[in-house]
Amino acid sequence: MTKLRNGGRILVDNLVAQGCDRIFHVPGESFLAVLDALHDMPEVDLVTCRQEGGAAFMACADGTMTGKPGVCFVTRGPGATNASIGVHVAMQDSQPMLLFIGDVDRSMRDREGFQEVDFPAMFAPLAKWATRIEDARRIPEYIARAWNVAISGRPGPVVIALPEDMLLDEVEAMDRPGLEGAWRSADYIGVESILSELREAERPIAIVGGAGWTPDAGRDFAAFAEAIGLPVAAAFRRQDAISNQSPVWAGNLGYGPNPKLVGRIKDADLLLVVGARLGEATTDGYSLVTPDHPGQKLIHIHPDPNELNRVYRTDVALCAPCGAFAEAARHCVTDSHDDEPLPTFAGAEAHAEWLDWSTPKPREGVTLDLGQCVAAMRERLGPDDAIICNGAGNFSAWWHRYWHYGAQPSQLAPTAGAMGYGTPAAVAAALRRKDKLAVALAGDGDFMMNGQELATAIQHDANMLVLVIDNRAYGTIRMHQEREFPARLSGTMLHNPDFAALARAYGCWAETVERTAEFAPALDRALGQTGVRLLHLKTDVEFITPGTTITAIRG
User: Could you tell me the residue range of the domain that residue 310 belongs to?
Assistant: First the structure.
């Protein structure tokens, strides 16, 4: 006879069965039964966070690193609305995530009870699937389905509301074993046909990274591209899709890309797009690569058929996991015994252009030169030594341009452009990958959105470095403001705390850096510490990006 268990216990048992080993949460009275079940589950690391947005970002980042759904629990109403930002990021970033929301009792529904929200309706536009579990007996079914939806096709978030009384129901339920995503391969005939298209091309280039991309996909695709000299560019904030040390790495698209890379994209006669959706940021508002791309052939490989021919007209569309395609492509060129020679393209030239673009030159008139700060970091941390985590803001442009990223995972950055992501993402990275140094990059405005998660980092013994880049402004918006309404400042300047003192109050080691010459010694001292370390970098808003100034924008 099946043992009676309450809904909270059944839920935790089935998460463990699917492979869940870590849960991020902010506690709420609406899911106390789950917290009680976790009391007896030492195999699940329960990470207690300080705000639901930070918890959701941690789950999103964890899913990015593992390929399994990052799991987050929050309470109803305010908790769920705070966490919604993480759902949006997980969806736009194509990363697997499960958000569980403690809900009102079933008997209270539709009375606008305390903190009541119709969560399936609220999250339907944001998630791959949003639902509510009404019957504790069906929890195993819902968990297995949610796990599968989150990792299949284009990965993404699933939101599940949990009525408080349902979690207390004691019922019989049959657990479901762990699931793997539906196995799919890339047809070798289809891959050979793509290689035939490449043989006919003169100026091809690949754009990679995105849904379901894995470290194995990166290694296999790099081997394929290197065998034929195919230049490889990354979609926006997918710079660890392949190691930047690859001799065919051409750089990243997005905001402020290398003009020579932009020229190569425009001049290409064939675009091989693997995993990327070709979204607005990657394509500069659908202008760098237009939906109809006249004069260019577009080959698009994506794991979700709904993304193929959705916005872009494709000449060749292949629905396949990125890893399966990359492996097949590698075999096609490395195991080839055809008499027809393999083509050779301009990957080495594109890589040389990127090396020049990504080498920071000293900048005149700058008291604290962030380009030289990145150079100092590169001297001390190799591409595979760190995971660079950042939120949104112009501060990230220096690292996007000058940092040399290693193989995945070495970058956690929201393609959705959400502020406040870097610090919680670094907490998740520090807990998941203890073999790497988690580095959080945050602007002053960006840091203040989730800086409270330093407390989470301290509580859970995270080993991480935080760089707060403080120009006393919402820099990105100030840049746009100066372009549209020069010298008419309104609502973009900030009065900030002493971030080093704030960090020390949390229990971190911290220093303030105000001049370029001070950075390298301060970084050495930080790297000599353990635990959470923070460097407060005071910069001048005049130098708003690596390539321009406020004065130039006004002019």
Answer: 188-353
Q: Which residues of the chain have pLDDT under 50?
A: 1
Sign of CA dihedral 208, 211, 217, 219: positive
Task: For strands 129-132 and 97-103, give the pairing.
Answer: unpaired
User: Are residues 347 and 386 both part of a single domain?
Assistant: no
Q: Within a domain: residue 177?
A: no
Answer yes or no: are the C-beta atoms of 390 and 413 closer than 8 Å.
yes
Distance CA(247)–CA(15), nearest Å, equals 42
Burial of 366 (0-12, 13-18, 19+ CB in 10 A): middle
What pLDDT is attached to residue 117? 87
For residue 179, is it within any domain?
A: no
Indicate whether 181 belongs to any domain.
Answer: no
* Closest of 121, 51, 118, 56 to residue 84, by C-alpha: 56
H/E stretch holding 198 reads: helix 188-200
Question: Rounded to whole angstroms, how far apart are CA atoms 228 and 199?
Answer: 10
The answer to whether residues 54 and 133 belong to one domain is yes
Give the helix/strand (H/E) hosting 468: strand 464-470
225 and 328 part of one domain:
yes
% pLDDT > 90, the chain? 90
- Residue 63, classed as helix, strand or coil, is helix
Does residue 207 sit in the same domain as residue 271?
A: yes
**What secondary structure, in 3-state letters, does 437-452 show?**
EEEEEEEHHHHHHHHH
